Structure to design on (97 residues):
């Protein structure tokens, strides 16, 4: 069993101590960097007075990206299933002929 790793992640000028699996570290650090970059972008592009507003905008952006990926995956799966059904029908027709 892997030992837990204690790290500190900084987001919006706050430090968050976390105890994680070592395999999670890279993903968490990358996510924190993306959040920081997004915060900077929102602060530069919009007159935002409160960090909480910026963080809410970041959360919305990330959630929207996740939902869009799920929607895209779903439509890709439906398309793949339709193609497989068509291929199966062609094979059945060929095998019964």
């Amino acid at each position: 069993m892997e030992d837990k790793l204690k790290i500190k992640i900084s987001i919006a000028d706050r430090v968050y101590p976390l105890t994680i699996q070592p395999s999670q570290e890279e993903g968490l650090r990358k996510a924190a960097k993306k959040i920081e970059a997004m915060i900077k972008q929102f602060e530069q592009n919009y007159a935002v007075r409160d960090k909480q507003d910026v963080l809410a905008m970041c959360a919305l952006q990330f959630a929207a990206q996740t939902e869009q990926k799920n929607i895209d995956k779903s439509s890709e799966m439906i398309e793949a299933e339709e193609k497989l059904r068509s291929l199966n029908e062609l094979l059945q027709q060929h095998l019964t002929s």
Observations:
- The mean pLDDT is 92.
